[in-house]
Amino acid sequence: MNRYRITLYQVLGWALVIGYDLLGYDMLGLMHGMRRHIAAADLPKAHLLNLTFWLSLISLFYYCFLVVFPQGLRRGRWPTLVLGLLGTPLVFAGTRYGLEEVLTPLLFGFRNYSPGVKLTFYLQDNLYFLLPTIVMAGAAVAVRDAFVREKARESQLQIQLLKQAKIQAELAFLRTQINPHFLYNTLNYLYATAYEVSEPLAEAVLRLSDLMRYLLHDSPDGQVELRQEVEYVENYLALHRLRFEEKFFVNFEQAGLPPGGQRVATLLLIPFVENALKHGVVNQAAHPVDIQLTLPAPGQLAFRVRNRINQHQKDATTGVGLPNIRRRLALLYPGRHALRVHDDGITYTAELELSL
Questions:
Q1: Over residues 105-111, mean pLDDT
Q2: Residue span of the structural domain in which 267 resides
Q3: Do 23 and 126 belong to one domain?
Q4: Looking at per-residue confidence, does 291 or 204 come out higher?
Q5: Which of 148, 142, 147 has the alpha carbon at shortest distance from 64?
Q6: Is the pLDDT of residue 49 over 80?
Q7: How many domains does the chain have?
Q8: Packed helices 322-332 and 270-279: angle between N→C axes, nearest 10 degrees
Q9: Are 188 and 209 in contact (CB under 8 A)?
């Protein structure tokens, strides 16, 4: 909460308290005859004196709230606290005297107390209102300090969590610098070994190596060339084709793709393909999975995946990951994409249009 709002709330709070007091003074006076001794012409004077009283009380409150308790309690200066509290009668009585007995007579020609009032009565009358105000100021300081401590604790906890997250990110980064080399060397060894045993197995290892290399590729802006994304989809499909042998029917058509230059977000297209292979029918020649990628105009991309829904699958949900896909598109291509999904219970179609 900023200082402006805090100040505004305090002003409104004091205005409500003073307004309630003035209204209550009028209403109680009318009901109980307390104003019978006050002439109608003198009622504004009574309100003015009541207002000067509240200004004096507010001055005392903030003197204790901003000066006495912070200087004495926070820094452990007990003599300062004691002296500050002993000085509160002078602050309150002095402020009230200056407003009601000096300024008001000069401006309006009347005062609150009679000219012959004794000093002892004046001090006693002010002391009656003094003590509750000091207690209220002390309670306000205690509440504020508790709030500040809690916010500081939350901030410290947040800092610790950020430090831990940073450490974990650094460790993960270091692991990515080590693991890929080991992974690539292992896959190369498996490829060489598998080639002597089975060429299809060696091809599967090679495709897997290409997939892993793409996944671990670090792009500064999170984007790759469109042809690289297409190659990843092709390798992904080729690996599945080896798995299903002759019973894998997927068509991947491309049109209007430039040789290079166009860039897209990494792994932008593959979730739609994964969804089709996981929840669709891939082993029926009459109902192949149809994937189409085109660039209908410069800087425009159209991608469509259509598949027959597998009715025998235990998890028949076809929209797995769709909220995440929509969220990612909203972050990466705000106002530059359109995603349409159609599910009639038999066929599932996802269509994506992008402005690159």
A1: 75
A2: 249-355
A3: yes
A4: 291
A5: 142
A6: no
A7: 2
A8: 170
A9: yes
